[in-house]
Amino acid sequence: NDNTQTGGGVGFSHQLTGLTSFVANASYNRTTSNASEGALSDTASNNVNASVGFATRFGPKTTGTAGVSYYSYRPTDVLDGRGYDTFNVYAGVNHQF
Hints:
Structural class: mainly beta
Shape: elongated
Radius of gyration: 19 Å
Number of strands: 5
Strand order of the largest sheet: 1-2-3-4-5
């Protein structure tokens, strides 16, 4: 496929305590088809991704993470109406033996 992608993103992280950190990310991109013929000629999509999360250390061998993320896919032109959104909540604990 011959596509052009444009966009950008930002990220932020901050150490809240000696053991816990916060991170946030957001990005946007637009993908445009360069095809001049066919079903996907002159199509494009707008994509948004955002997330926030925390990471902490419970002990010398145990860490944890938790956060939320959101993703949006919005096609334009001939693909209108076939977009979707996802929202995720995650948590995890990692222990090394």
